[in-house]
Give the backbone structure.
Amino acid sequence: MTEKGNSPLGRRDFVATLGGVAASAWVAANPESLRAAAAFAAQAGTQVRYQVLTPAQVRELDAVTSTIVPTDDTPGAREARVVRFIDRSLATWAKDQKPQIEAALKVLSDFVAAQRNGNRSFAAIPATERTKVLEAFEQAHGAEFSGAFWFPTMSGMFSNPSYGGNFNKVGWSLMGFRDQFSWAAPFGYYDRG
Amino acid sequence: MADTTGNESHAHQARGAADPRAGMRRYRTTDEVDFVIVGSGAAGGVVARELSQAGFSVVVLEQGPWRTNAEFTHDELFVNFRGGLTNDFDKVPNTFRTKESETAKKQGVAQYAMMVGGSSAHFTGNYWRFPEIEFEQATKLGVPADSTIADWPISYAELEPYYTKVEWECGVSGQAGVNPFDPPRSRPYPLPPLPIKSEGVLLERAAAKLGWHAAPAPMAILSQPYRGRSGCVNCGFCFGFACEVGAKSGSINAMIPDAVKSGRCEIRSGSYVRKVELGANGRVTGVKYFDSRKVEQFQRAKAVFVCANGAETPRLLFNSATAGFEQGLANSSGWLGRNVMFNYNTVGAGLFSHEINGWKGAVVSRIVQDPTVLPKELGIYGGGGFDFRSAMTPMNAGVQTLPGQPRWGSEWKKGLRRNFSNSLLAIGHTTQLPVFTNRFDLDPELKDAWGVPALRLTYADHPNDLEMVKWFGAKGKELLDAAGAETSVDFGVGPMGWPQLHLLGSARMGNDPRTSIVNADNRSHDVKNLFIVDGSSLVTSGRGQPTMTIQALAFRAAEKAAGAAKRGEL
């Protein structure tokens, strides 16, 4: 996103507004393994076991990602199966990113421990207090937050469902995107003529 | 560079579509073909078609894979976030520094689609002709301090027939006679404009308020079926994407199939050219390249066209240095790699009360070119134009928010739908001054995965240009406000950011061999049977949108080369 710089929103310029997101490492895999990821996701049902993440890591990532995109009156990261997306990505096209995720989880654990009298688990914090802690973490550790948590969450919410996230296209529904191959004008309110 | 996907075999499995490679003529490397062309992009594709149709034997060496339309997808993670279609800076790195005294650091600076068709396979398709004044700016507007801006060796009138050729041979949609800033033309567009989008309607409103003129955007995307190709289906996965229905009129769809059909042209993908070879007689004899297995090959040829883009072309010529051309092949002037330009793009964003739905349709439907030349009293050299666009694909909408808005959590979630459907961008497209010290050369240390010296950029913005983008940024916001935006913001473009996509001016055309690399026909001043045409040929940057002009030059260069070859003058 940053490194490859091909964002439709003005390619390079918008990136600065994101505060120098260090997400590029997350997406530094090769196309071959991306296709492998798609194939993997296609054959993997909901009962599939986590391939890379440990149960403890799943708990932590679930707590983090569901704070980033909470479930309220509309679906969030849980319904989109963002943690499964991360696991599948780490098992396939983003194999080399595992150390980055693990390192960020360790930084988060240390951060929580310092704030919470030695409790090292973000997931152990009551759900109502997680947003505040995560906001503080973002302030203190912006690179880890953005690269290892925020960008993977957004990817799992809105990427093509073939990667294992955006389950049932809940991410797309959330923003009002409809997955249709062709459209005809009028497209919006102002071009109705 | 080379087929870094390692996936050539996958590329052969076109899903049901007729394989464009079927029945393609193949040559041996030992065959001395009439022309070898380095690069199959906007320029290389045109030259390949024109020369092969004119009866010459042609081999096109393309570093990237040959992907067919059936393989293109709406996979945004792959295309726009992973750079799945573009060059791989891990394998072929660049370096960057701001001045000669610095040691350059690793930084991807020059980005392009690495595939058959080059960047014209995934471009946005803005096909503005350069204005008449573009070709005579030094004479008409003067030469600012510290700029090497010059008149072109050809006029707009000389290039006009070739602009027309691009429009008709490739397929450009537009409307003649309605844009006061469209230069004189000999023919109308072959296809009506693409449907107007909400962004276009809003730009029309804004322009009217400013006393400006919005016009249908000339787009290299088919608005209707044309010459056996499908028209645009408005799928919306357009910016950065290659077209699944082949409606984008880049070389992959409009030129390469004709070249192959001629029976005289081979497109050899996965071929990474590392050196243009000079013979004892001062003429080029062919090119050395790595095939997809990294084995070095030598393709013999009577003449060579380098169409590798404004970054890879100078790099290849520097890497082709040899006795008599110690500072780079065809570089007796010392001007190779210099005066590199990229075009600036200013960005403003606006949020509107109703749905725009920019995620449907092609990227641009209306443009404004009133500030083509900024008023003299501003004291700013240059100019450009604007479009309104949104091009909101879902992942982008997820990660991009307006300044001051939350980017995660419940509040972010509440605004998501509106950001996605009701926002648009005001993009300014501008000139950039050529500066002698802004240059590509080779990094003294760093090499790519093939052991070939890496590209180095030395670059600093000209103060005039920073003033210019300030003006365009402010004007973009003014347009958004005039269009009725509820919220508007100017992102205040400062220094050039990386990587850049428009790679221009690094092997410029000119009549004087002391200050240019190729002549008015894109033929090397130094080496008689060497031609160079791509973004590197441009003397000035245009007001953005260089591909149309690159293709017009390519049609012209191919015609001139064919004529010279037929007269025995190569």
